């Protein structure tokens, strides 16, 4: 997905949402998403309620609607798929503006659009208020196996190197008269990829060995942990959003 | 189209099926954590991080197919299986997917189980089985290694795409009726092309790495345990 770099999504600011410990935000975001997905698709009002929740959190986090909407473009392929559904869907059909559309397909399209968009917004809010470093700390505190957080740490660390290097190599190729099109660009790209990979690895290996010789044991030092783990109060505060969402979802299930 | 297959958005597949695959993915990942710990030594740890970063990066690079509209990204299952082995490799891909879902909203969080099953479990498992088989059958030359990497990548991409079709058949939220076969066909054809691209990139990368630092290729390490790898001097080789 051609969506810039990880850090690109972080919005430097000071807000109640930014100050919440990362593990709390991750848990709240996942719980919220599950509640949204579990909602029956015919309960239209419930999705309005979720959207309202997202808007409130976004306002608290000082994330503007414009930023949220532009970044939602990542969802576009699914939107296209959703628009195809009313034409492809099976079963009962209805007439709308002279087009014969599948009722099942229309519901399906609505389902994907509503749930997909809410999910993207929830992730974007998490990304906008949490640095990638905090994200790893959060996963670590959520008892994520150390091998996983370790891979994630190194991944984020090496990403900068890789992306920058790849961009430079591409510019170098183009400025030497290469005009990448169709499958031919694969040749140039792939030939460079091997070299890129090796260079990045050797650099990464040196960094890793330097870390090991300074006492790295696979876990980031306490300095990284920042203000410390979440308090019960912070858990309760962050729980309001998923608890409200779960209430809405439960009501929707009962009503339909 | 490809994002459709691989990074499944919330609401495409219904809740129960998503939950079922989340359980499958969790169980598989737990096994990978167990086995991966044994594999992860001082050489594999930075490699695992780099492979994850690499896969993350190539998943962002879309390349055009037929110059019109359709574009896709690579999956990286085969290269992970080749360079860091099946256990750590599957973990790498899963980490990529989790981070993408958490910070990009790329793929619904509730659908993570489905994506992880497709790409991290199915993709890497198929790739590694093929690698293990082909490396024994084919001659131990650079060409043999290249063919192995190419075939493993190609097949793993198509199998991962078919994993999505299976999931859609089990629990797609919109009933496509007879068009499901059409979905399967589209997915297979478009991913055949992505698979070719992925195969070429995997093959060139693996061959380059194997030529300069054969000790880094996990799949080759497992093959010749007796022969000590060229000793990597600490702190930079060349």
Automatic annotation (TrEMBL), chain A:
Alphabetized UniProt keyword annotations: Cell membrane, Membrane, Transmembrane, Transmembrane helix
Chief site of localization: membrane
InterPro entries with a match to the protein in the record: ABC/ECF_trnsptr_transmembrane, ECF_CbiQ, ECF_transporter_component
Membrane topology: Multi-pass membrane protein
Residues annotated as signal peptide: none
TM stretches of this protein: 42-61, 68-88, 108-128, 182-201, 235-255
Pfam families registered for this protein in UniProt: CbiQ
Subcellular location per the Swiss-Prot or TrEMBL entry: Cell membrane
A Gene Ontology BP annotation from the UniProt entry: cobalt ion transport
Cellular component, GO, one term: ATP-binding cassette (ABC) transporter complex
Protein name per UniProt: Cobalt ECF transporter T component CbiQ
Gene that produces this protein: cbiQ
From TrEMBL, chain B:
Annotated localization: Cell membrane
Transmembrane segments: 12-31, 43-63, 75-103, 109-135, 147-170, 190-212
Membrane topology: Multi-pass membrane protein
Name used for this protein in its record: Cobalamin biosynthesis protein CbiM
UniProt-listed InterPro entries: CbiM/NikMN (IPR002751)
Statement: the UniProt record of this protein carries the keyword Transport: yes
Gene3D superfamilies, per database record: 1.10.1760.20
Organism ancestry: Bacteria, Bacillati, Actinomycetota, Actinomycetes, Micromonosporales
PANTHER family from the UniProt entry: METAL TRANSPORT PROTEIN HI_1621-RELATED (PTHR34229:SF1)
Keyword Cell wall biogenesis/degradation: no
GO biological process per UniProt: transition metal ion transport
